[in-house]
Amino acid sequence: MSTTDIPFGRPWITDDERDAVMQVLNGHILTHGPNCTAFEDGFRAMMGDGHATSTSSCMASLHLCSIDLGVGPGDEVIVPAMTHVATVHAVELTGATPVFVDCELTSGNMDLDALGAAITPRTKAISVVHYAAIPCDMVRVMDIAGDIPVIEDCALALGARVDGRHVGLWGHAGCYSFYPVKHITTGEGGMLVSKNADTVARIARFRAFNVDRTHTERKIPGIYDVTGVGMNYRMSEMQAAIGCQQLKKVPDILAQRRTNFTALKAGLDAIENVRVLDSAEERLQSTHYCAVTLLEGPLAARRDDIIVALNARGIGTSVYYPHPIPRLTYYRDKYGYNPADFPGAIAISDHAIALPCGPHLDVGGMTAITAAMREIVLGLTRS
Ligand SMILES: *Cc1c(COP(=O)(O)O)cnc(C)c1O
């Protein structure tokens, strides 16, 4: 048995980022200054459309969306069962009730037939996640939602498009994460985007205490008024400076991810009872956060053994996500949990392995992962 060094994720930081941070530190504007503005403009240019404001995290962006929509006690918000807990915390914190919908087994995205059935007169908003960069069919989501506002959790879906339009620009707003293992990083950080300029302007103000003018808009320094309650969910200049440099790497990052994913999926799909989740249609353009590999038949029950064997060979893995959200202790205790409602999310949580395809790896790495998987599966089938 040979060991390799194939980590699940690794931020791509070079002298570009180091120099940019030093430039900020050698200046005197450390927060909400020109780097934040440049990062927001660059993000918007990358999407090719829409508007953007930087935030302190994706969770902050999601929370801002709930607040902006006036979500509160007595309201229901439809959320995916298969997502990061942040999607649901952002609803729970407002006092509204999350209503969980299961996912499809082909993509990990919300089952849109079940979405329609979950809508009630109390539904105040619908939150969808683009699972592991596989975009939800937003044309169908918007059609099912009608007048109900839609929030897009795009934390793992930078660059993903539906019919050519970037995710996050379909519903009320979209939320991005720059946590270290996502497509690009600022350490911690997030972006809130929308096709609607007023939505972004309103939320940008709220995320900066809701003061009525920024530093540059003030005629007399230190003088401002406040027209509503607000938060401090801003990004710092050091983070934004890193973000500007990361944006320049996006074309290379997406190209390498595509090459890696294509090779890895072809290799893994050739193994019996191993299936990689992917977009069903060309028009739903994924940017391949990782290869979510579902184990079927007799392999399903051996998931953890396979993970241990892969890790022992130096291949990093993860699980997206470890539980359907309603199975997490807090949500189970509060709302109850019926496994029969979430067969799709349970299968992915318990029988799938997230394998790396990030730009820190090349096709040689993908071949090594496929070879290790084949060997491990063969060993298990024999024993
Ligand atoms: C990582 C992740 C988040 C949380 O992002 P932070 O920037 O760490 O708050 C939210 N939603 C999804 C789908 C994620 O994968």
Q: How many strands appear in the DSSP assignment?
A: 13
Order of helix and strand elements from N to C terminus: HHEHEHEHEHEEEEEHHEEEHHHEH
Helix percentage range: 25-40%
Heterogens: pyridoxal-5'-phosphate
- What strand line-up does the widest sheet have? 1-9-8-5-4-2-3
Q: Summarize model confidence as the mean pLDDT.
A: 96
The helix tally amounts to 12
Per the principal axes of the C-alpha atoms, what is the gross shape?
globular
User: Which range does the strand content fall in?
Assistant: 5-15%
Span of the ends, CA to CA: 17 Å
The residue ranges in which pLDDT falls below 50 over 5 or more consecutive positions are none
> What is the CA-based Rg, rounded?
21 Å
The secondary structure category is alpha/beta
Largest sheet: 7 strands, mixed
Walk me through this protein's architecture.
The longest helix is centred in the middle third of the chain and has 33 residues. 39% of the residues lie in helices and 14% in strands. With 383 residues, it is of the alpha/beta class. It contains 12 helices and 13 strands. The mean pLDDT is 96. It has a 7-stranded mixed β-sheet, with helices on both faces. It has a 3-stranded antiparallel β-sheet with strand order 7-6-11, with no helix packed on it. The chain has a 3-stranded antiparallel β-sheet with strand order 10-12-13. The two termini are 17 Å apart. Helix 4 links the parallel strand 2 and strand 3. Pyridoxal-5'-phosphate binds next to helix 3 and helix 4.
